[in-house]
From TrEMBL:
SUPFAM superfamilies: ALDH-like. This is Aldehyde dehydrogenase family protein. One of its GO terms (molecular function) is oxidoreductase activity, acting on the aldehyde or oxo group of donors, NAD or NADP as acceptor. Gene3D superfamilies: Aldehyde Dehydrogenase, Chain A, domain 1 (3.40.605.10), Aldehyde Dehydrogenase, Chain A, domain 2 (3.40.309.10). The keyword Oxidoreductase applies. It holds the Pfam family Aldedh. The keyword Chloroplast does not apply. It comes from Crassaminicella thermophila. It comes from the Bacteria. InterPro entries: Ald_DH/histidinol_DH, Ald_DH_C, Ald_DH_N, Aldehyde_DH_dom.
Length: 463
């Protein structure tokens, strides 16, 4: 680490602390006004269109439609989840237990922003921070540093317009974006909010600063014989192709009941899926992995680009690839995370086998992240949820459009997904503003609630 990185970050932190001290005096009404203003100034069509264009052009990942849709949905959804929620002063009273809870800021948040979702992530994280009267410093991936600066400038102008310190939201400037600066930022901040690759998240947890990180994705969805296959295939297609699969939540594998497998494949083909031959599978594998690592040449790229890279002739109208597989683990890379418009197909006979496959696949990649199920059998749905080490189970939904919150489910809107201890994370929830406040508990005396030993231990005392 150079001394310049340490000094540069120290200056950013000092500016942020001064701004945060002012925010500490804000009322709930002021905080909510700022969050609403930030959201509106980002989702304005002229701004959202420019951001989506910049994100695709600078990163070379995903597509305009997906990034625009993320801005329109996640920013609005995040604001909806905040409206009417107390985050300033007294946020809860329990008269029976005589407990009062008071919300207070965490201080300065260091936010790491991935290049796969550079459009909505910095906005949501900033709104979450402001909701808790915090300041936030956004460190982008080098691949999207200009997009990050553009977005932050819109938010800073909004803060200024509404009478708040601009330095409540600070970008790491493009010329200073580096691993050294990000590392130093994580050390000097009060809390780290890390979204990105495994190495970055590990660095966040190793920084010595309290951190919320995310785990690797490798979502698996189970399809049984009780659902409409045409409808299910459409949902999977919409998720698999969204933003060319930049999302860690997209269906990397489908585990399908063997009696309906052929009909499922036909339904997927009707939705634009292309089932590769054994020879094409070999070509695709060589193109997608180099020395055991996913090739950047295929990550979040159009299907035509991937086909060209692999030397496969892709028929017109095909928008994603399907690869048949039987094995799981390092010797079977298609069972892992692919970050591309490629989904792997597995068969199962009895439902217990489907659960075993989900656990095996997510143990290889994506521990604790998520799985899904397309079934109308409530017993099977519950069995999957009870017996998999995943933090979220999406039922009859497009996985990547549902995991992080949708208008049609009850999940909190976010782009930061905790994966619990399974994924090396402290939280297994969707990370929101509620994770960016400290809470003081005020306790007054109440009448004794101590039970007798008989009430407490019951029959155990006589055994």
């Amino acid at each position: 680490m150079s001394i310049n990185a340490k000094e540069y970050v120290s200056n950013l932190i000092e500016r942020a602390r001064k701004a945060q001290a002012i925010a500490d005096t804000f009322t709930q009404e002021k905080v909510d006004e700022l969050c609403t203003a930030i959201a509106w100034n980002i989702v304005k069509p002229e701004n959202a269109e420019k951001i989506a264009e910049m994100a695709v052009e600078e990163s070379g990942l995903g597509n305009y439609e997906g990034k625009y849709a993320k801005l329109m949905t996640k920013i609005r959804g995040g604001l909806r989840d905040m409206k009417g929620q107390k985050s300033v002063g007294v946020i809860e009273r329990d008269d029976e237990k005589k407990i009062i809870k008071i919300a207070k800021p965490v201080g300065v948040v260091a936010a790491l922003v991935p290049c796969t979702n550079p459009e909505a992530t910095p906005v949501l994280k900033s709104m979450f921070a402001i909701k808790g009267r915090n300041a936030i410093i956004l460190a982008p991936h080098p691949r999207t540093k200009k997009t990050n600066t553009y977005i932050v400038n819109i938010m800073r102008e909004t803060l200024k317009k509404f009478g708040a310190p601009e330095d409540l939201i600070i970008p790491v400037e493009p010329e200073y974006v580096s691993m050294d600066v990000s590392g130093e930022l994580m050390k000097q901040a009060d809390l780290v909010l890390a979204t990105g690759g495994g190495g970055m998240v590990k660095a966040a947890y190793s920084s010595g600063t309290p951190a919320y990180g995310v785990g690797q994705g490798n979502a698996v969805t189970v399809v049984d014989e009780t659902v409409d296959l045409k409808e299910t295939a459409n949902k999977i297609m919409r998720s698999k192709t969204f933003d060319f699969a930049t999302s860690c939540s997209t269906e990397n594998s489908c585990v399908v009941q063997e009696d309906i497998y052929d009909d499922f494949v036909k339904a997927m083909e009707a939705e634009g899926g292309y089932l590769v031959s054994p020879e094409e599978k070999e070509k695709l594998q060589k193109a997608m992995w180099h020395d055991g690592h996913l090739s950047s040449a295929i990550v979040a790229q159009a299907p035509e680009v991937i086909a060209k890279e692999a030397g496969i002739e892709l028929p017109e109208g095909k928008t994603f690839f399907m690869v048949e597989e039987t094995g799981i683990g390092p010797d079977y890379p298609f069972s892992g995370e692919k970050l591309s418009v490629v989904t792997t197909l597995f068969k199962y006979k009895e439902f217990e086998e489907a659960i075993e496959k989900v656990n095996a696949i997510t143990s290889y990649h994506g521990r604790g992240h998520s799985c899904g199920i397309h079934s109308n059998n409530e017993d099977r749905i519950l069995a999957l949820a009870l017996n998999t080490k995943t933090s979220r189970v999406m039922v009859r939904q497009p996985q990547c459009l549902a995991n992080s919150g949708a208008w049609t489910n009850g999940m909190p809107m976010t782009l930061t997904l905790g994966c619990g201890t399974w994924g090396g994370n402290i939280a297994s929830e969707n990370i929101t503003w509620k994770h960016l406040i400290n809470v003081t508990w005020v306790s007054a005396p109440i009448e004794s609630t101590q039970p007798t030993d008989e009430e407490l231990f019951g029959d155990i005392m006589n055994k």
